[in-house]
Input
Amino acid sequence: MKLKEFDYELPDELIAQHPTEKRDDSRMILLNRDLGEIRETKFFNFVRYLHEGELLVVNETKVIPARIYGVKETGANIEIFLTREIGRRRWRALCRPSKRLRPGDMIYVGGDRHRVTIEEEIGEGEWVVSLPDSISDMEFIKRYGNVPLPPYIKRESETEDIDRYQTVFAKREGSVAAPTAGLHFTEKILRDIDQSGSTVVPVTLHVGPGTFRPLESEIVEENVLSPEYLIVKKDYWDTINEAKKNGRSIVAVGTTVTRVLEALASGNIKEKEIRVIDNEEYITGWTDLFIYPGFSFKVVDALLTNLHLPMSSLFVLVSAFAGREKMLSTYKWAVQRRFRFYSYGDVMFIR
Output
């Protein structure tokens, strides 16, 4: 398949720059993928469209303030966007402007001039960096970091982003991007889901910067995604499998949840192991599962997902789930009706 087959016209002004005033006030497209029917409602009506007994799987990852600003001894401003912890005090990071950096450079952060050391270049603007040893990594990140808004939000992070670029069920720190389908939920909606007879089950996929990166190859199947770390309680995975066997529908909240569930079902997990965390057994590992048309879904029956950018891995995934032509026509409809796209945008429920 050619990547251009997943292109569509998206006016820049439809890429949401701020969240809605209320989380659940976003618009929602209802798409029946079998019949091709399209309707519009508001997300606060979401529970009406769930069926009794369904399992709703959410991603409880928590976004860390991964964007850090500092200066070199020369006075040059440097941005350090932490992407993945690789050892004690050692992280992979996207650094800008990369051309101004050399191994051994010191970047000074904050009034206390904490030193971040540039160690080695990985390529494409990514480096290995060492955080200061005078303070714990997470304390340093929380004190000096900024909300890592995606590159298509053309503004600096603001106070509202600290809360709004985080789901209400965020628990496990580690993401550098929000699982955006979850941003629409409120505590009230979670209570309503529970009272409706459906069950919410959490999993974790720490979202990396690869979610923003464009696919590089014009041949869709030749693209490779950056691996992301997953943590799933073994009992919850057993619950999901048992529900599936008993004919209960599995609703994935977002593409990240979809990738976790389908990676577990297909065995597409590297460095897989069972770890004991807080006296509970968890399945952990890395997945680079890339879902594109032709993929056989083994777990997910329905998908709640935001509206994605043209030719992105996320748009390719939803096209695999609902059909490319159906998604292109639905997105054209959404553009005509001025829906808001991507992280802070509106949402779609595909049944």
